[in-house]
Give the backbone structure.
Amino acid sequence: MDFEKYKGRSVLITGGLGFIGSNLAHRLAEIGDVDLTIIDSLADMQGGNLRNLKGIEDRVKLTVADMGDSWVINHLVGGMDYIFNLAGSVSHIDSMKLPHNDLHYNCTAHLSLLEACRMFNPHVKIVFTSTRQVYGKPAYLPVDERHRIQPMDVNGINKHATEMYHLLYDRAYGLRTVVLRLTNTYGDRQQLNHNRQGFISWFIRQAINGETIELFGEGRQRRDLNYVDDVVDALLLAGLSEEAEGEIFNLGHPQNVSLAEIASTLISLTGRGTMAGVPFPPERQLTDIGNCYCSFAKIERVLGWRPKTDLREGLQRTIDFYERNREHYWNVDEKDSLSESYPSFKQIA
Ligand SMILES: NC(=O)c1ccc[n+]([C@@H]2O[C@H](COP(=O)([O-])OP(=O)(O)OC[C@H]3O[C@@H](n4cnc5c(N)ncnc54)[C@H](O)[C@@H]3O)[C@@H](O)[C@H]2O)c1
C-alpha cells in the first residue's frame, strides 16, 4: 500500500490520544513529513492516554479540548487536507446509562466539526469511524452494507445519525466524507482500565493477570475481530480514495470465532488464566447482538483492503505489548499527569 501521498500534507486526528487514533498517528509519523495535529478531550472513562504518543510527541501538535467547542474546532480545521474523525464514545453499556453523554460524544460534537469544515474548509476529506453496532441483531450473516439498520443501544443510534450527518455534508456542501463501520478492534494502546469498552481488552487483561475470564452465555457468540494495524490501513486507504467519497464500508475479518475460542487462545498464548461460563447480567443481555460478523467484500472491491493479521498472531503481538507496558494501561488517570508528561500541550477549556 502506497501511503507516501500523505507526505507534505496536513492531517487532523480527532480522538487521537485514544486507541485507534494514536495507532494512526504513529503510522503517519512513520510515513514522515506529515503535519500532524490531534484534538482529544481525554474524556472520562474513555481510552485517551498521553502515553499513547510516546516516541512521537515532537511530531504532533496536541490540543486537549472538546471537539464540540466551536471556538476551538473552528480554529483547527482550516488548512487541513485530511481529517480522521475518531473521537467518540465506544461504550454501549454507558450509552444506555448516560444517553446524554453519548449524544454529545457521538453526535453533537461531530456537528461542531462538520459545521467548522463547512465554514472554514469546505472541501476537506473526512474519514469517520462508525460501528457495525448500527445493524443490531443480524438478520443474516455475514452482515453487508445493505443489511437493515436497527441499533440495540443508544450508541448505535447516535453513531448512525453521525454517519448520516457526514454523508449529508458530502452531498449538500461538497465536503468529501467516507464512513467506515468497524468491527471489534484490538491491539496495542487500548485502555485496560475497565471492561466497558468491549470484551476483548478485558479478556487480554484477565489472561495476563492469570484470572478467570467470565463468558456471558458460555461465550458462544461469534465475532470477527480486526487487529488495529489493519484498521489503520483501511483508514489511510479511505483517505486517499476519491471513489470512496460519499460511501459506507464495513470492515471485517474472514475468521469468525466464538468468544470462548478467543478466551481459550489467550489462555494458551499467555500460559495463564482460566475461563468459566456465567449467566448474562440483565444490562448486558439487553444490548447483546448475538452472533455478528461482517462482509468486507465492498471495501475489498473498491479500496483493495483486506485484513492481513491472523487472529492468533495479532493476539500474540498485543499480549507482548501489554506485558511490556502494563503499568501505563492499568488504572491510569491521565489527567493527573497531563502537564508533567506533555509539558508542551495546549489546554483550552
Ligand atoms: N475500538 C473498537 O473496537 C471500535 C469498534 C467500532 C467503532 N469504533 C470507533 O472508533 C473510534 C475510536 O475508538 P477507540 O477504540 O480508539 O476509542 P478510544 O476511547 O480509545 O478513543 C476515543 C477518543 O476520543 C476522545 N473523545 C471523545 N469525545 C471527544 C470530543 N468530543 N472531543 C475530543 N475528543 C473526544 C476520547 O478522549 C478518546 O481519547 C470511535 O469513534 C469508535 O466509535 C471503535
